[in-house]
## 1
Amino acid sequence: MNRIPLAGVIGHPIAHSKSPQLHQHWLKMHGLQGYYIPMDVMSDDLENVLKTLPKMGFVGVNITVPHKEHVMQIADLITDRATLIGAANTLIFRKDGKIHADNTDGFGFIENLRQGAPDWDPKAAPAAVLGAGGAARAVVAALLDVGVPEILISNRTKVRAEKLQDDFGKRLTVVDWVQAGNILEDASLVVNTTSLGMMGKPDLRVPLDGLQKSAVVTDLVYAPLKTHLLLEAEAAGCTTVDGLGMLLHQAVPAFERWFGQRPEVDSAARAAALR
Ligand code: ATR
């Protein structure tokens, strides 16, 4: 008997996740049978839940905050990029019973930029990354992978940026948080990976005067879609790319692995995620 494939997303809390609407939309678009279910799971239960789901017909799950690092201790096989980042967001439950962990956040980040700013040349100039948390690790790994010559990184807590420099190497230059505005002059790309600008959090305020008009500014925050940073960058004449596309694109490889078809990131997918 062929079982209907099940997938889902595990986090705590999980009610805010946009992934269920997105995957259900793609299942419908492709006329596929399947379900994608949000699961609110506490850290203490994570391992038991992950060992049980394959027996219930789950083909894999997405992992979100706060379990992305923890899941690395539970997975049997881990891709090199997930190891480098130190976190996973996608699990495949293999037929041999093994749990395979991957991280598609960096892929989502780059694909979103390619779609939103097709003229951006990664190899032409340094990129400025604001923040040095978990999200920044995926962004830095992806930028190095596409050949960015230098990454100027600035974080309120400087030691976290220095840790990234230790882990990712010489192409990273750490800049004091108070000096963050100064690093933008040379950058062809500015990325906010901090949580500043998220609904309920203060805005990220960096002086954009030095920024070249040809620069691309992107924010990982997607609620609101237009953060203060993006509005300021738009007013300065720069190309801006919002963070929703990263969420959509990171979901593509997982959907394809679980359900066998490569989904489209288009306006209908964006609308579904915002529903
Ligand atoms: P994530 O996995 O989403 O990156 P995180 O690891 O908690 O989450 O990192 C949050 C990022 O937002 C960090 O760069 C954090 O700076 P610190 O390392 O100094 O904590 C940044 N951040 C959060 N609140 C901030 C604030 N009020 N001012 C400046 N940076 C802030």
## 2
Amino acid sequence: MDATSNSETPQDTLYDEIDTFFESAPPLKDGPDISRKLKEFIERNSQSTGKGASRVVCVTSGGTTVPLEKRCVRYIDNFSSGHRGAASTEYFLKAGYSVIFLSRRGTCQPFCRSLPEDPLLECFEVSKELNVRVCQPHSEAVRTAIGEHCAAVKGGLLLKLPFTTIFEYLQILHLIAMSMKNLGTHAMFYLAAAVSDFYVPWKSMVEHKIQSSSGPLDMRLVQVPKMLSVLRKDWAPVAFCISFKLETDSKILLEKAEIALKKYNMHAVVANELLTRKEVVIVVTSSEKISVHRDKTEASADVESPLIKLLVEKHSSYIEHLDS
Ligand code: PAZ
């Protein structure tokens, strides 16, 4: 062991791991285009300053994949339908935020929640004259979805950026954080995506499809560096940061959420259990644990509505406290 490795602190090791992750990641295909869109979006949404300044939230949604081959046929996936992120985006927009929606390709999108699973084939019909029209039972839902989506995107209040792999997700999240740096306390990160904990480094990944004829698969996965701490410390040091903790074992959920809160210095961690995630979440902060429930008396009510209301209030107090 040499002198350098002896004197390395855990913090140095983390930065080394992060450098290695980004240096070896395949570059984003559309990196310059994403940077341009972000620049325009932030410019448009950071015109005013002071107390009335616009607030921008980055909502992450869906699960990241870990490719096992460079010409990827097989991958490891993370569970997330994207419902939480899509619904939360709608409520943030209603609350006056501009939203950067970083979501897994193919997962639930804002304003599409009340549409059937295959909207194109189920909501439209073709007449004898070959005109396309909306089927009656879905016409109201389609009108609302298209109308609200168009208003948000064309009005410059919603920017949607897709990802698939862990490499894309972390590189785009970094670009977003850099672009939001000047928003100060008015920036929020709402990190609901299910992010892989382990990955195969690009350098050690095989090029071609792994052959089953080679026998049982023996593969070493490396830990994904804990980017939450650098997001908080370096990428966006004054932004309001909310992360999520999903567990299947209720006995360890709150303990894990508290560990994440302290370890990554989050402003709040939203704890949820896989089976009950649509009914209840617990917002864990350094001083309290608040259970947030879906209003069961209303069939269409969701847990995201009261959750976003609470987080917007917490963000307001944070801005008030830091900017006064
Ligand atoms: O996307 P969805 O609505 O099906 O589920 C949301 C969720 C459970 C992925 C989210 O609330 C969450 O906990 N995300 C973080 C997962 C994690 O601990 O990595």
## 3
Amino acid sequence: MNDKTATAKAHTNIALIKYWGKKDRELNLPTTSSLSLTLNEFYTITAVTEGKEDTLLINNMMQDPKRIHQFLDFLRQNVGDFPPLTVISRNMVPTSAGLASSASSFAALTAAVAKYNDWDLSEKELSRLARRGSGSATRSFFPGFAVWHEGTDDESSFAEALPATDLPIALVVCEIAGTVKKVSSSDGMMRAMTSPNYAAWVEESKQQFEEMQAAIAAKDLAKIGELAEKNALDMHALNLTATDRRFTYFNQMTQDILAKVKELRQAGFLAYATLDAGPNVKIITSQDQAETIQAKLKEAFPKLRLEIATPGPGFSYIKED
Ligand code: DP6
């Protein structure tokens, strides 16, 4: 057996304009283009080496390899054959933070497998391939802000970085212990698509996607926050109005934090909320206000775990010793 190992690192990302629906489940094509911020503090490092069968270890714990086995088979059939792999991942994404660890995980895995096989792939190609593992992974190869173009087919649905900016944006991540029954993002978005309001959200999202890029270019943090909050809250309203098993990711704490964010804003702070497939609120703010906002949240909710995140780098390969 070959003892070659390839290791890659990818950071997770938070969508400011969300991906919440698939127009093609097989190809994992989204119904909307989305826009994200890569986060410096949260990442995954993944090493792959030959094994007897595809296996997955995350933070030293054996995991069900079904999802990555399917993805590895997709790569074997579409890019080039390779032996069974042992996949060893270290996830520096707090599990309760409700940040999509599948984004950094599938991006790091795609890059590690490409390196293992000496595939000479562009970032665009890596992004397209990772999309088949998890949509949000498409955006996790790039530093700072990234856009995932929805595209119309396998070829045209990929992400790329927006021009670099020194925008002092920060995120205060509120970690609420999960008491809500988990609905996976894949299942949640399929249900949301049955909302009578879905088409209107898609339409508005198209406009918000353009406006968000303009707000980033203009370094208008308040506008970025305003657009992101509206896009996210309207996305969560789709879950509540789904005709197929409507649901919500919110719990009481979510509501209380959202009220606090509004209160902070009324008091003159730069604070806007966004949420993904879970109850946790992420507060969009500026780097110079992040610690004050963190302290205010801690004062109001002493049990809450809070972390500050800032813009992060693109993916990288890690040299084996
Ligand atoms: C709410 O990327 O986890 O975080 O493609 O089915 O794996 P799959 O979905 P996933 O969905 C992420 C949804 C989201 C919004 C976003 O990241 O854009």
